[in-house]
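fyi for ur records
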Amino acid sequence: MAGKGTPATAQLAKAKIAHTLHSYEHGSDGAYGPEAARLLRLDPATVFKTLVADVDGTLTVGVVPVSAMLDLKALAAAVAGKRAKLADVAAAERATGYVAGGISPLGQKKRLRTVVDAAAETLPSIYVSAGRRGLSVQLAPADLARLTGARFAPIAAAPA
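which gave:
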């Protein structure tokens, strides 16, 4: 499984997008994003997690730094919605084709509306899940936005 590609890596290759894959040995603590940053020795501000939320009945992806939390009200506002809540894990897995902890904003089974936190725009590159626990991809934020049809908006909140 380690050498096998994912729908995310296939999408990147097909679009000929410059990217670098980084693998690490996933543990079992459940804090996937912070674990990736720690094990890859990366600044947590450059490692982003992919969260699926239900905004007014429509699944929507929020991509925020692992050092932050998703601001659900800001996510709803970014897509002109009223109410947002984190999606049921099973629904997120079904819609994206990935397992929790390995959900990538790229190569999803069903292309979902995507919002990337505005902090990403100021960075030369960011790291997101490449579609499997223990595998991250480094790419330019503009390339991520282009491939996913994402918009940038301030959707991150300080951790509680």
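The longest strand covers residues 48-55. thats all i got for now
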